[in-house]
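In the previous lecture we treated proteins in isolation. Real proteins rarely work alone, and many bind small molecules. This record shows how such a complex is specified: first the sequence, then the SMILES for zinc ion.
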Amino acid sequence: MINLRLAPGSGDRSRLAIRAAMIAAAAAVLLVVSAYAVTRVIGGSDATTTPTAQSDNGQATSPTHPAPSVAPPTSGDTWLISAPQPRAVPAVPSPAAGAGGSGGVYGGPFGTQRRTGGSYAALTFDDGPDPRWTPQVLDLLRTYDVRATFCVLGRAVEAHPELVRAIVDDGHTLCNHSWDHDMTLGQRPRDEIRRDLRRTTAAIQAAAPGAPVSYYRQPGGVWTGRVVEVAAELGMTSVHWDVDPRDWSLPGVDAIVAEVTAQTRPGSIVLLHDGDGDRLDGSSDRQQTVDALARILPELTGRLRLDALPP
Ligand SMILES: [Zn+2]
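The predicted 3D structure, ligand included, written as tokens:
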């Protein structure tokens, strides 16, 4: 303790005053430390946060895009979480507050949506539209009277606008999946991200005037806080998934069916692919996904409601 010489008679009061001053000083130190932590976290989404890397298809080794400079997916959809996510710090309110934490609607990486929030499950189809597979998917969905959500690539939309119109005409909803499936997009400067997302949405709306584009999904699931923020600025909810049969890896129709039917429950968001991702050489094959879908739809519609994410 600090020894101070005090005037006689004023001892108790002075000691009280000193104690109060010390408590105030300690509180001030705590405030400064908390403010620093908050600044780190908020700033971190822009500058210091390393994204989680998760493959939503097999492009990590694609020759058309260099591997991301951050840790690339090493084994399928293994998550390489190398930095704390904003939600880990309780002092910072997250978009998921009140939504059920990590198991909730916004329990995906960086507060992305991973559950529908309703009793229905949602099928999502990424990397199209593609004339080889999208029409087959649309036929199956029509047969089972199911609406789904298509996460389309700008360059595929530009090449096949008639398929976007077919998607919208059947009552499905749309999601922006970037222009050309650049898995490093989330680490680029904000204005580059904004330009890419805007260009993609503009192509979608040129193909299907008036169709809302309310969702964004980051290629490869390589989310960053920055890309989630830019998507939000542009009016889009960032949507992840909670069921991933890794159909892009061509595990076989039986494996895709088994995974989806075992894991899908009310509220699930299921990740499937009706297009190529960044394999511009057309080497990928989504026929497994189409064939699996023909078996998945009767099973799922027999026990729960399937619907699109709302427009
Ligand atoms: Zn994709």
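Summary for your notes: The beta strands are 122-128, 149-152, 173-176, 213-216, 237-238, 269-273. Residues 113 and 239 are 5 Å apart (CA to CA).
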